[in-house]
Design the sequence.
Protein backbone atom coordinates (compact mmCIF):
# COMPACT_ATOMS: atom_id res chain seq x y z
CA UNK A 1 0.00 0.00 0.00
CA UNK A 2 1.79 3.10 -1.26
CA UNK A 3 -0.93 5.66 -0.64
CA UNK A 4 -0.46 8.59 1.75
CA UNK A 5 -3.47 8.72 4.07
CA UNK A 6 -5.32 11.69 5.50
CA UNK A 7 -8.26 11.40 7.89
CA UNK A 8 -10.67 14.33 8.08
CA UNK A 9 -12.59 14.41 11.36
CA UNK A 10 -10.92 13.02 14.49
CA UNK A 11 -13.89 12.07 16.65
CA UNK A 12 -15.18 8.67 17.77
CA UNK A 13 -14.83 7.31 14.23
CA UNK A 14 -11.95 9.18 12.66
CA UNK A 15 -9.38 8.89 15.42
CA UNK A 16 -9.38 5.06 15.62
CA UNK A 17 -9.06 4.99 11.82
CA UNK A 18 -6.13 7.41 11.88
CA UNK A 19 -4.39 5.49 14.67
CA UNK A 20 -4.84 2.15 12.89
CA UNK A 21 -3.20 3.47 9.73
CA UNK A 22 -0.66 5.49 11.75
CA UNK A 23 0.84 2.32 13.21
CA UNK A 24 2.23 1.35 9.81
CA UNK A 25 2.08 4.54 7.72
CA UNK A 26 2.43 8.26 8.27
CA UNK A 27 -1.04 9.80 8.47
CA UNK A 28 -2.34 13.37 8.29
CA UNK A 29 -4.99 13.74 10.99
CA UNK A 30 -7.14 16.82 10.33
CA UNK A 31 -9.85 18.39 12.46
CA UNK A 32 -11.32 21.91 12.45
CA UNK A 33 -11.34 21.97 16.25
CA UNK A 34 -7.97 23.31 17.36
CA UNK A 35 -8.72 22.30 20.95
CA UNK A 36 -9.15 18.71 19.80
CA UNK A 37 -5.88 18.88 17.86
CA UNK A 38 -4.03 20.23 20.90
CA UNK A 39 -5.50 17.48 23.08
CA UNK A 40 -4.37 14.76 20.68
CA UNK A 41 -0.92 16.32 20.34
CA UNK A 42 -0.63 16.12 24.12
CA UNK A 43 -1.27 12.39 23.87
CA UNK A 44 -4.78 12.23 25.29
CA UNK A 45 -8.14 11.26 23.81
CA UNK A 46 -11.07 12.40 25.96
CA UNK A 47 -13.47 10.09 24.07
CA UNK A 48 -11.48 7.14 25.48
CA UNK A 49 -11.70 5.34 22.13
CA UNK A 50 -7.91 5.26 21.86
CA UNK A 51 -5.48 4.53 24.68
CA UNK A 52 -2.64 6.96 25.34
CA UNK A 53 -0.14 4.21 24.47
CA UNK A 54 -1.81 3.70 21.07
CA UNK A 55 -1.63 7.41 20.32
CA UNK A 56 2.07 7.36 21.13
CA UNK A 57 2.65 4.44 18.75
CA UNK A 58 0.95 6.07 15.76
CA UNK A 59 2.77 8.31 13.30
CA UNK A 60 0.14 11.02 12.88
CA UNK A 61 0.54 14.69 12.02
CA UNK A 62 -2.34 16.26 13.94
CA UNK A 63 -3.34 19.50 12.28
CA UNK A 64 -6.10 22.06 11.80
CA UNK A 65 -4.35 23.52 8.73
CA UNK A 66 -5.95 22.33 5.46
CA UNK A 67 -2.66 22.94 3.64
CA UNK A 68 -1.22 19.87 5.35
CA UNK A 69 -3.79 17.73 3.52
CA UNK A 70 -1.88 18.34 0.29
CA UNK A 71 0.69 15.81 1.51
CA UNK A 72 -1.89 13.03 1.17
CA UNK A 73 -3.47 11.42 -1.89
CA UNK A 74 -6.03 9.16 -0.15
CA UNK A 75 -8.47 11.17 1.93
CA UNK A 76 -10.83 9.47 4.41
CA UNK A 77 -13.79 11.59 5.55
CA UNK A 78 -15.14 10.66 8.99
CA UNK A 79 -17.22 13.65 10.05
CA UNK A 80 -20.59 13.56 11.85
CA UNK A 81 -23.83 13.28 9.89
CA UNK A 82 -26.51 14.46 12.34
CA UNK A 83 -30.15 15.36 11.92
CA UNK A 84 -31.68 18.77 12.54
CA UNK A 85 -34.57 19.79 14.81
CA UNK A 86 -37.04 18.55 12.19
CA UNK A 87 -35.32 15.13 11.98
CA UNK A 88 -33.99 15.88 8.50
CA UNK A 89 -30.45 14.96 7.43
CA UNK A 90 -27.82 17.62 8.08
CA UNK A 91 -25.06 17.13 5.53
CA UNK A 92 -23.30 20.38 6.37
CA UNK A 93 -20.30 18.65 8.03
CA UNK A 94 -19.83 16.37 5.01
CA UNK A 95 -20.27 19.19 2.54
CA UNK A 96 -17.89 21.33 4.58
CA UNK A 97 -15.31 18.55 4.55
CA UNK A 98 -15.82 18.18 0.78
CA UNK A 99 -15.17 21.89 0.35
CA UNK A 100 -11.99 21.71 2.42
CA UNK A 101 -10.70 18.70 0.49
CA UNK A 102 -11.71 20.21 -2.84
CA UNK A 103 -9.47 23.20 -2.20
CA UNK A 104 -6.37 20.97 -1.89
CA UNK A 105 -7.40 18.15 -4.24
CA UNK A 106 -4.81 16.99 -6.79
CA UNK A 107 -4.96 14.83 -9.89
CA UNK A 108 -4.79 11.18 -8.91
CA UNK A 109 -6.30 11.68 -5.44
CA UNK A 110 -8.99 9.41 -4.03
CA UNK A 111 -11.63 10.57 -1.54
CA UNK A 112 -13.42 7.94 0.56
CA UNK A 113 -16.37 8.85 2.75
CA UNK A 114 -17.10 6.87 5.93
CA UNK A 115 -19.89 9.03 7.35
CA UNK A 116 -23.40 7.55 7.42
CA UNK A 117 -25.55 8.94 4.61
CA UNK A 118 -28.52 8.04 2.43
CA UNK A 119 -27.86 6.21 -0.86
CA UNK A 120 -26.61 8.67 -3.45
CA UNK A 121 -25.13 11.29 -1.12
CA UNK A 122 -21.50 10.63 -2.06
CA UNK A 123 -21.97 11.00 -5.79
CA UNK A 124 -24.93 13.41 -5.87
CA UNK A 125 -24.08 15.78 -3.00
CA UNK A 126 -20.37 15.57 -2.25
CA UNK A 127 -18.82 15.08 -5.69
CA UNK A 128 -20.25 18.36 -7.10
CA UNK A 129 -18.64 20.23 -4.19
CA UNK A 130 -15.30 18.50 -4.74
CA UNK A 131 -15.44 19.39 -8.44
CA UNK A 132 -16.52 22.99 -7.88
CA UNK A 133 -13.77 23.68 -5.33
CA UNK A 134 -10.97 21.87 -7.16
CA UNK A 135 -11.80 22.62 -10.76
CA UNK A 136 -11.10 18.94 -11.42
CA UNK A 137 -13.36 16.30 -12.97
CA UNK A 138 -14.46 13.28 -10.94
CA UNK A 139 -13.68 10.04 -12.75
CA UNK A 140 -11.01 11.74 -14.81
CA UNK A 141 -8.80 13.70 -12.43
CA UNK A 142 -9.80 12.17 -9.09
CA UNK A 143 -11.91 9.25 -7.85
CA UNK A 144 -14.29 8.64 -4.94
CA UNK A 145 -15.32 5.68 -2.82
CA UNK A 146 -17.42 4.89 0.20
CA UNK A 147 -16.59 2.64 3.15
CA UNK A 148 -19.17 2.93 5.94
CA UNK A 149 -17.89 3.22 9.49
CA UNK A 150 -18.75 0.46 11.95
CA UNK A 151 -17.17 1.90 15.07
CA UNK A 152 -19.05 0.94 18.23
CA UNK A 153 -18.16 3.58 20.87
CA UNK A 154 -16.86 2.05 24.08
CA UNK A 155 -16.41 -1.42 22.55
CA UNK A 156 -12.83 -2.59 23.19
CA UNK A 157 -13.39 -6.00 21.58
CA UNK A 158 -14.86 -5.10 18.18
CA UNK A 159 -12.40 -2.38 17.23
CA UNK A 160 -11.76 -0.84 13.80
CA UNK A 161 -9.24 -3.44 12.64
CA UNK A 162 -11.35 -6.37 13.88
CA UNK A 163 -14.62 -5.48 12.10
CA UNK A 164 -15.23 -6.62 8.53
CA UNK A 165 -15.06 -3.50 6.36
CA UNK A 166 -17.44 -2.77 3.50
CA UNK A 167 -15.60 -1.01 0.67
CA UNK A 168 -16.79 0.47 -2.60
CA UNK A 169 -15.49 2.60 -5.42
CA UNK A 170 -16.85 4.49 -8.39
CA UNK A 171 -15.17 2.00 -10.75
CA UNK A 172 -13.22 -1.25 -10.54
CA UNK A 173 -9.82 0.44 -10.42
CA UNK A 174 -10.90 2.63 -7.50
CA UNK A 175 -12.50 -0.30 -5.69
CA UNK A 176 -9.26 -2.27 -5.98
CA UNK A 177 -7.26 0.60 -4.49
CA UNK A 178 -9.76 1.26 -1.69
CA UNK A 179 -9.86 -2.45 -0.84
CA UNK A 180 -6.06 -2.63 -0.85
CA UNK A 181 -5.69 0.39 1.42
CA UNK A 182 -8.16 -0.84 4.04
CA UNK A 183 -6.93 -4.44 3.81
CA UNK A 184 -3.49 -3.20 4.87
CA UNK A 185 -4.80 -2.54 8.40
CA UNK A 186 -8.20 -4.26 8.78
CA UNK A 187 -7.34 -7.81 9.80
CA UNK A 188 -11.00 -8.89 9.63
CA UNK A 189 -10.95 -8.37 5.88
CA UNK A 190 -13.12 -6.40 3.47
CA UNK A 191 -16.40 -6.94 1.65
CA UNK A 192 -16.48 -5.42 -1.84
CA UNK A 193 -19.84 -3.81 -2.51
CA UNK A 194 -20.68 -3.60 -6.22
CA UNK A 195 -21.50 0.14 -6.12
CA UNK A 196 -21.17 3.12 -3.83
CA UNK A 197 -24.96 3.30 -3.44
CA UNK A 198 -25.08 -0.32 -2.27
CA UNK A 199 -22.46 0.42 0.39
CA UNK A 200 -24.34 3.54 1.50
CA UNK A 201 -27.61 1.61 1.68
CA UNK A 202 -26.03 -1.27 3.60
CA UNK A 203 -24.83 1.07 6.30
CA UNK A 204 -28.09 2.92 6.73
CA UNK A 205 -30.18 -0.26 7.03
CA UNK A 206 -27.90 -1.89 9.62
CA UNK A 207 -29.10 0.48 12.31
CA UNK A 208 -32.60 0.84 10.87
CA UNK A 209 -33.06 -2.89 11.43
CA UNK A 210 -31.93 -2.59 15.06
CA UNK A 211 -34.12 0.47 15.56
CA UNK A 212 -37.22 -1.38 14.41
CA UNK A 213 -36.51 -4.42 16.56
CA UNK A 214 -36.08 -2.24 19.65
CA UNK A 215 -39.23 -0.31 18.70
CA UNK A 216 -41.17 -3.58 18.81
CA UNK A 217 -39.81 -4.27 22.31
CA UNK A 218 -40.72 -0.75 23.40
CA UNK A 219 -44.24 -1.08 22.05
CA UNK A 220 -44.59 -4.40 23.84
CA UNK A 221 -43.52 -2.71 27.07
CA UNK A 222 -46.31 -0.15 26.66
CA UNK A 223 -48.82 -2.96 26.09
CA UNK A 224 -47.59 -5.15 28.94
CA UNK A 225 -47.54 -2.22 31.37
CA UNK A 226 -51.28 -1.87 30.84
CA UNK A 227 -51.69 -5.56 31.53
CA UNK A 228 -49.59 -5.45 34.68
CA UNK A 229 -47.01 -7.81 33.17
CA UNK A 230 -43.23 -7.33 33.53
CA UNK A 231 -41.79 -7.00 30.00
CA UNK A 232 -38.31 -8.26 30.87
CA UNK A 233 -39.81 -11.37 32.47
CA UNK A 234 -41.74 -11.99 29.26
CA UNK A 235 -38.61 -11.55 27.12
CA UNK A 236 -36.62 -13.87 29.36
CA UNK A 237 -39.26 -16.56 28.93
CA UNK A 238 -39.60 -16.03 25.17
CA UNK A 239 -35.83 -15.99 24.83
CA UNK A 240 -35.70 -19.71 25.66
CA UNK A 241 -36.81 -20.36 22.06
CA UNK A 242 -33.76 -20.89 19.84
CA UNK A 243 -34.66 -18.31 17.20
CA UNK A 244 -36.07 -15.54 19.40
CA UNK A 245 -34.01 -12.38 18.85
CA UNK A 246 -32.50 -10.93 22.08
CA UNK A 247 -33.62 -7.30 21.81
CA UNK A 248 -34.76 -5.32 24.85
CA UNK A 249 -36.81 -2.15 25.36
CA UNK A 250 -35.14 1.09 26.36
CA UNK A 251 -34.05 4.58 25.40
CA UNK A 252 -32.69 4.56 21.86
CA UNK A 253 -30.14 7.32 21.44
CA UNK A 254 -26.63 7.80 20.12
CA UNK A 255 -25.16 8.78 16.80
CA UNK A 256 -26.42 5.79 14.81
CA UNK A 257 -29.56 3.89 15.73
CA UNK A 258 -31.70 6.94 16.45
CA UNK A 259 -30.33 8.95 13.51
CA UNK A 260 -29.69 6.65 10.55
CA UNK A 261 -33.36 5.72 9.92
CA UNK A 262 -34.14 9.38 9.28
CA UNK A 263 -31.58 9.43 6.46
CA UNK A 264 -33.30 6.47 4.84
CA UNK A 265 -36.83 7.85 5.28
CA UNK A 266 -35.75 11.21 3.87
CA UNK A 267 -34.37 9.63 0.72
CA UNK A 268 -37.37 7.32 0.42
CA UNK A 269 -39.71 10.30 0.38
CA UNK A 270 -37.48 12.02 -2.17
CA UNK A 271 -38.12 9.13 -4.54
CA UNK A 272 -41.86 9.10 -3.85
CA UNK A 273 -42.37 6.52 -1.12
CA UNK A 274 -43.54 7.12 2.44
CA UNK A 275 -41.92 4.45 4.68
CA UNK A 276 -44.65 3.73 7.21
CA UNK A 277 -42.96 0.94 9.19
CA UNK A 278 -39.66 2.77 9.71
CA UNK A 279 -41.32 6.03 10.70
CA UNK A 280 -43.69 4.25 13.07
CA UNK A 281 -40.74 2.62 14.80
CA UNK A 282 -39.03 5.96 15.15
CA UNK A 283 -42.14 7.49 16.75
CA UNK A 284 -42.33 4.68 19.28
CA UNK A 285 -38.66 4.99 20.24
CA UNK A 286 -38.67 8.78 20.35
CA UNK A 287 -41.57 8.68 22.82
CA UNK A 288 -39.96 6.34 25.35
CA UNK A 289 -38.48 9.06 27.56
CA UNK A 290 -41.91 10.55 28.13
CA UNK A 291 -43.48 7.11 28.59
CA UNK A 292 -40.98 6.14 31.30
CA UNK A 293 -41.44 9.46 33.12
CA UNK A 294 -45.23 8.97 33.05
CA UNK A 295 -44.81 5.44 34.44
CA UNK A 296 -42.67 6.77 37.26
CA UNK A 297 -45.04 9.61 38.12
CA UNK A 298 -48.06 7.30 38.04
CA UNK A 299 -46.38 4.87 40.43
CA UNK A 300 -45.31 7.72 42.71
CA UNK A 301 -48.89 9.01 42.84
CA UNK A 302 -50.09 5.54 43.81
CA UNK A 303 -47.61 5.69 46.69
CA UNK A 304 -49.07 9.08 47.76
CA UNK A 305 -45.83 10.85 46.89
CA UNK A 306 -46.07 14.57 46.27
CA UNK A 307 -44.97 15.01 42.67
CA UNK A 308 -44.08 18.67 42.29
CA UNK A 309 -40.65 19.18 43.77
CA UNK A 310 -40.13 15.47 44.48
CA UNK A 311 -36.52 14.44 44.88
CA UNK A 312 -35.69 12.28 41.89
CA UNK A 313 -32.27 11.18 40.67
CA UNK A 314 -31.16 9.75 37.33
CA UNK A 315 -28.07 7.56 37.14
CA UNK A 316 -26.46 7.92 33.73
CA UNK A 317 -26.70 10.48 30.93
CA UNK A 318 -24.55 9.08 28.12
CA UNK A 319 -26.31 7.27 25.28
CA UNK A 320 -24.81 3.91 26.25
CA UNK A 321 -22.90 2.17 29.01
CA UNK A 322 -19.19 2.53 29.80
CA UNK A 323 -18.70 5.31 27.28
CA UNK A 324 -18.51 9.11 27.68
CA UNK A 325 -20.44 9.75 24.44
CA UNK A 326 -23.32 12.18 25.07
CA UNK A 327 -24.38 12.60 21.45
CA UNK A 328 -28.14 12.40 21.00
CA UNK A 329 -28.70 10.89 24.44
CA UNK A 330 -32.36 10.06 25.00
CA UNK A 331 -31.90 10.29 28.76
CA UNK A 332 -32.29 14.01 28.09
CA UNK A 333 -35.89 13.33 27.02
CA UNK A 334 -36.46 11.69 30.39
CA UNK A 335 -35.02 14.73 32.19
CA UNK A 336 -37.29 17.08 30.23
CA UNK A 337 -40.33 14.91 30.86
CA UNK A 338 -39.73 14.99 34.61
CA UNK A 339 -39.28 18.74 34.43
CA UNK A 340 -42.69 18.93 32.77
CA UNK A 341 -44.15 17.36 35.92
CA UNK A 342 -42.48 19.95 38.14
CA UNK A 343 -39.55 17.70 39.09
CA UNK A 344 -35.95 18.90 38.75
CA UNK A 345 -34.03 15.62 38.77
CA UNK A 346 -30.51 15.22 40.06
CA UNK A 347 -28.43 13.80 37.20
CA UNK A 348 -25.16 11.96 37.70
CA UNK A 349 -22.92 10.05 35.33
CA UNK A 350 -19.79 8.02 36.00
CA UNK A 351 -18.32 8.59 32.53
CA UNK A 352 -19.59 11.84 31.03
CA UNK A 353 -17.63 15.07 31.19
CA UNK A 354 -19.56 17.65 33.19
CA UNK A 355 -18.59 20.49 30.86
CA UNK A 356 -20.00 18.61 27.85
CA UNK A 357 -23.28 17.86 29.65
CA UNK A 358 -23.66 21.56 30.37
CA UNK A 359 -22.65 22.64 26.87
CA UNK A 360 -24.80 20.10 25.00
CA UNK A 361 -27.90 20.01 27.18
CA UNK A 362 -27.68 22.65 29.91
CA UNK A 363 -27.55 19.85 32.50
CA UNK A 364 -25.30 20.24 35.52
CA UNK A 365 -24.04 16.84 36.62
CA UNK A 366 -23.92 16.02 40.32
CA UNK A 367 -21.65 13.53 42.09
CA UNK A 368 -23.12 10.15 43.00
CA UNK A 369 -22.78 11.13 46.66
CA UNK A 370 -25.51 13.74 46.13
CA UNK A 371 -28.02 10.96 45.41
CA UNK A 372 -29.62 10.35 48.81
CA UNK A 373 -33.02 10.58 50.48
CA UNK A 374 -34.70 10.32 47.03
CA UNK A 375 -38.30 9.39 46.38
CA UNK A 376 -37.18 7.85 43.11
CA UNK A 377 -33.86 6.80 41.58
CA UNK A 378 -33.89 5.93 37.88
CA UNK A 379 -31.05 3.71 36.66
CA UNK A 380 -30.92 4.93 33.06
CA UNK A 381 -27.49 3.71 31.88
CA UNK A 382 -25.82 0.45 32.89
CA UNK A 383 -22.36 1.82 33.56
CA UNK A 384 -20.22 -0.78 35.34
CA UNK A 385 -20.05 1.55 38.33
CA UNK A 386 -23.80 1.19 38.81
CA UNK A 387 -23.87 -2.53 38.10
CA UNK A 388 -21.44 -3.24 40.93
CA UNK A 389 -23.34 -1.22 43.55
CA UNK A 390 -24.84 -3.48 46.21
CA UNK A 391 -28.28 -3.46 47.80
CA UNK A 392 -27.22 -1.36 50.77
CA UNK A 393 -25.70 1.28 48.51
CA UNK A 394 -28.92 1.57 46.52
CA UNK A 395 -31.00 1.65 49.70
CA UNK A 396 -28.82 4.52 50.95
CA UNK A 397 -29.92 6.60 47.97
CA UNK A 398 -33.61 6.36 48.87
CA UNK A 399 -36.00 7.86 51.36
CA UNK A 400 -37.89 5.36 53.56
CA UNK A 401 -40.66 5.27 50.92
CA UNK A 402 -38.41 5.64 47.89
CA UNK A 403 -38.31 3.31 44.90
CA UNK A 404 -36.01 2.40 42.03
CA UNK A 405 -36.83 2.38 38.31
CA UNK A 406 -34.52 0.00 36.48
CA UNK A 407 -34.59 0.86 32.76
CA UNK A 408 -31.71 -1.46 31.90
CA UNK A 409 -32.75 -4.46 33.99
CA UNK A 410 -29.47 -4.63 35.92
CA UNK A 411 -30.64 -4.50 39.53
CA UNK A 412 -31.02 -7.54 41.84
CA UNK A 413 -34.79 -7.14 42.03
CA UNK A 414 -35.56 -10.02 44.38
CA UNK A 415 -32.76 -9.10 46.80
CA UNK A 416 -33.89 -5.48 46.88
CA UNK A 417 -37.49 -6.58 47.40
CA UNK A 418 -36.42 -8.68 50.37
CA UNK A 419 -35.02 -5.50 51.87
CA UNK A 420 -38.29 -3.67 51.34
CA UNK A 421 -37.21 -1.72 48.25
CA UNK A 422 -39.62 -1.49 45.32
CA UNK A 423 -38.06 -1.93 41.89
CA UNK A 424 -40.09 -0.85 38.86
CA UNK A 425 -39.00 -1.93 35.39
CA UNK A 426 -39.75 -0.85 31.86
Sequence:
Amino acid sequence: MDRKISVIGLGYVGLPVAVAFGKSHQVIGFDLNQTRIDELKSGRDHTLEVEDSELAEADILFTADPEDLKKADFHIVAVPTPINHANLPDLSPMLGASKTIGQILKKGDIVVFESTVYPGATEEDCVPVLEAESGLKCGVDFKVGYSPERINPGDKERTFTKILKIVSGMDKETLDIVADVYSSVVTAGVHRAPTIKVAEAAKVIENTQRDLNIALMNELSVIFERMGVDTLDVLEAAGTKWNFLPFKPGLVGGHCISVDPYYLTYKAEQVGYRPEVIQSGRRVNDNMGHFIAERCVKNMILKDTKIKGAKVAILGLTFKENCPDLRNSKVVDLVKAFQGFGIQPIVTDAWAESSEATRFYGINLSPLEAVKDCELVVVAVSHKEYVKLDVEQYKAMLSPTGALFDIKGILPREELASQGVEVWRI
